[in-house]
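Please decode residue identities from the backbone states below.
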């Protein structure tokens, strides 16, 4: 005997009719969900507003690992928007996606003429056909006169970003802020890497990911941050006591008795402080060799940190990351019940690692056979137990 079919509950939209939400309420609830699912992250309060909106735009939490901010990027973007600076965009999609009401909420001077996109201009198309090169290259060349002090926004073309990099390097053009999020497979990774090595404020997305919606979301987030400030309030003053000031990052390696073995980690920590504005980045080792985890953890707490993120300085996941380090961290954090201690992700795979290994291969081709390599006596290169 056939069982009776379940009663059709009707269209799902009727559940929404029963508990309706406005667009603003849906957005606010979405942000609440994101905050709940990401209880900790390495960003300052304002940076998190940008990253959170990017996640809201894509539903992709993996963006957390790819977003990059130069020091003062947020304040540079807010200043440019408040001044009503031109916004150069590399695609019509970005131009269409940018909200004039949002822009005008920061500066009433904004109108459609402030958002500049030359990629569909007839003279640009003609030059591209004659040269057999992408239109985006000639579009940004046409915009050169307005790039100084502008917001330059890339969600589509790595070639346009490469040309901007050239203008910065060779012609000393300085946009107020570059949003570097072209997407794709050809010249994408290197265009972003080059931009992030230059002396210009940027918000970028490492790797191949990107796209116009993400670039738009960054501008809209900057508008929201600016609106959150009182009239005339300076963002730099507002964020002097941001939550990130009470955060600390510990890079944890294994440890070695070879003197100077941790100098590369120390340089990474220094660059993180300089390039990304983290107020406190230290190194430590899980073994008793060199600055160990218990002493560096306690030092960070004594310096005022109440949120400490430990990044395992290991390429691969093994017993150290799965068991040894978490057990050690649990033991130490019991001494400080008010401190939040997070074990972050190991380094793992990244596209940039492929380039690094390739470079190592190229630089090693002329080295001699290992049988001809002179080895230093262990007692000469190793320090005593308990030293780095």
């Amino acid at each position: 005997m056939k069982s009776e079919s379940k009663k059709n509950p009707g269209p799902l939209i009727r559940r929404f009719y029963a508990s309706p939400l406005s667009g603003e309420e849906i957005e606010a609830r979405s942000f609440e969900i994101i905050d709940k699912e990401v209880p900790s992250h390495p960003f300052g309060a304002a940076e998190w507003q940008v990253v959170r909106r990017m996640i809201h735009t894509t539903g992709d939490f993996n963006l957390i690992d790819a977003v990059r901010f130069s020091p003062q990027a947020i304040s540079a973007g807010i200043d440019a928007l408040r001044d009503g600076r031109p916004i150069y965009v590399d695609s019509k999609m970005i131009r269409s996606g940018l909200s004039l009401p949002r822009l005008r909420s920061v500066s009433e001077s904004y109108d459609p003429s402030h958002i500049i996109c030359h990629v569909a201009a007839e003279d640009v198309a003609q030059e591209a056909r004659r040269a057999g090169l992408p239109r985006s290259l000639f579009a940004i060349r046409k915009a050169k006169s307005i790039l100084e002090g502008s917001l330059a926004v890339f969600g589509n073309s790595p070639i346009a970003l490469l040309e901007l990099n050239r203008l910065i390097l060779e012609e000393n053009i300085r946009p107020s802020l570059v949003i570097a999020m072209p997407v794709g497979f050809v010249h994408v990774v290197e265009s972003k890497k080059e931009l992030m090595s230059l002396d210009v404020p940027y918000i970028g997305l490492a790797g191949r990911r990107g796209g116009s919606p993400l670039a738009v979301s960054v501008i809209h987030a900057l508008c929201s941050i600016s609106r959150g400030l009182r009239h005339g309030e300076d963002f730099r003053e507002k964020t002097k006591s941001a939550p990130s000031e009470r955060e600390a990052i510990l890079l944890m390696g294994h440890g070695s008795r070879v003197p100077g073995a941790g100098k590369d980690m120390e340089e990474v920590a220094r660059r993180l402080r300089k390039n990304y504005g983290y107020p406190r980045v230290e190194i430590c080792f899980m073994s008793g060799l060199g600055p160990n985890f218990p002493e560096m953890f306690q030092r960070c707490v004594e310096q005022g940190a109440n949120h400490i993120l430990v990044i395992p300085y290991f390429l691969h996941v093994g017993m150290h990351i799965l068991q040894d380090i978490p057990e050690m961290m649990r033991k130490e954090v019991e001494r400080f019940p008010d401190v939040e201690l997070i074990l972050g992700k190991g380094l793992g795979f990244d596209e940039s690692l492929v380039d690094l290994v390739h470079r190592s291969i190229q630089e090693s081709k002329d080295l001699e056979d290992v049988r001809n390599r002179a080895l230093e006596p262990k007692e000469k290169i190793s320090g005593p137990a308990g030293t780095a």
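Observation: DSSP finds 18 helices and ten strands in the chain.
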